[in-house]
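Hi R.,

As promised, here are both runs. First protein below:
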Amino acid sequence: MYPKFPYFGSEEKCEEVPITFPPQHLNRQPGFEYLLKPRPISENPQSLGSCKLRDKVAIITGGDSGIGRAVAYAFAKEGANIAIAYLDEHRDAEETKERINEIGKHCILIPGDLRNESQCYHVVEETMKCYGRLDILVNNHGVQFPQTSILDISAEQLDATFRTNIISFFYMIKATLPHMCPPGSIINTTSVTAYRGEKSLIDYSATKGAIVSLTRSLSLSLEQEHIRVNAVAPGPIWTPLNPASYPAEHIKTFGANTPMERAGQPFEVAPAYVYLASDDSRYVSGQVLNGGTITQT
């Protein structure tokens, strides 16, 4: 068994957070969360919500699993209805939708490739058709393909990484803006690699740096529209992306080099998105919340 320690819960039922993980590899990106051992912890049962997003509508890309799933649960507990855009991870997406319905909110699933601009417009159209309004956009999807040298990054990989991780963010924002109700909120998922770099993730880190610059520039552009733009830069979080990216043995030490000496769980970063989506952060725009490690910014 992998080491664990109690993190939250009552004496009768105490949830445990893994410190290390058994070797495992997923054969494709995006990966399937239902195949992970142990499953990521997407929800803090002690968090009941306080209506911070009551009657709001949020689009969450990559909301089928990982951080996106945790954000969807947290938003639903705060009163939001959800539209989840994802590629083709249908089993994970249905599980997420089912839980949102149990929480008492509505969720629609919109599969498709967001690298196609037309699909981004389709996501927004379906959301408006269902809910008639749009308040929050969370750009949260991404891929990473580790390479030991920049010489090993093919033109095809470079194109796939940039089209997925940053160009599609532009597409989603452009599709969303004509329909967003002010005061609105756009939240982009970047990464600590935007600041500290990562020698095996050169193209990925470059896109995450671009997301930071997009966030800061767009916040200035939309200031008069009463739409705030911020970002979250997680450290290592236990999601399908990492076992889908690295060899099985790499996962044994995933997150061990952080100050907390473990990877984070999706539920531990989701409250940052709630803060940035809600009125609590009404005077916050163009900012990046770092999480999961200590970085120089």
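And here is the second one, sequence first, then its structure tokens:
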Amino acid sequence: MAVEHWIDLKRHPLTRPETVRAIQVLVRRSAGAELRMTFRLDGDVPRIRVPSPGVPRFAARLWQHTCFEAFIAVEGQPTYHEFNFAPSGEWAIYAFSGYRNGGPLVSETMKPHIALRSSGGRLELDSVVRLDGLSVMHKRASLRIGLAAIIEASDGLSYWALRHPADKPDFHDAEGFALLLEPPDSDS
């Protein structure tokens, strides 16, 4: 059985809460080296700027608009990967050797699967990431996960994360990688 966690993201105190009431994430790590995440946003969805569905492809600067993110590090190591998931189906992956020290990892074999659903006051984005292609990953390793969202709405940007360790939003701060995922049982 896969390891599952529902988690509430917190809005950074410098940003407005009017458009988005809550964001939760369901995280599932399987023994098959996949990390599945469902980001669920509850709010005034018509006021949120959601990019139209397009061709799934690598794209830069997705974080300037509505975007969901995951930061994945092996417990105790400074290296980490950043995944950006746009409602349009566009994606980005970055590899870092330490705090913000790295760059894009453009690999079609690492391309995440992204699916979007929207109804009434709810927007859900499903993403699947393969862990076995990450440069420092081992399927028996404990992982530190940071989850985040940038929401572009008619009243501006809001920043959401598991933890906001700094005065300004900074999803790369390792103290924000607040979820520890142990390796799943091998029969998952």
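A quick note on the second one: Residues 22 and 42 are 5 Å apart (CA to CA). Let me know what you think.

Best,
J.
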